[in-house]
Amino acid sequence: MLHRIVEETGYSFPSGHSMASIVFYGMLAMLLLMFVKSPVLKLLIAVTAGCLIIMIGVSRIYLGVHYPSDVAAGFAAGAAWLTVCGAGLQAVLVSRRS
Question: What global pTM score does this model have?
Fold first, then answer.
């Protein structure tokens, strides 16, 4: 028998924490990467954001409040939303340059 650390009730598909982490930290990384010139610092920002996102997803599984499929779906939905937000940001930047 598996004892859960945290008992969660209700629906959990997709994982909101996973979705929010990829959108927030992904967008934060995108904004920072736009202004940073150093390639080493750019790599550090990308790796740090990636590690934070992965750790949040793994923590949801470890705590037993989500199945891996919940986290994967949260990441997929968050990545889709991040893509839309990134495209919108690029569109605004291009229109301002014109």
Answer: 0.82
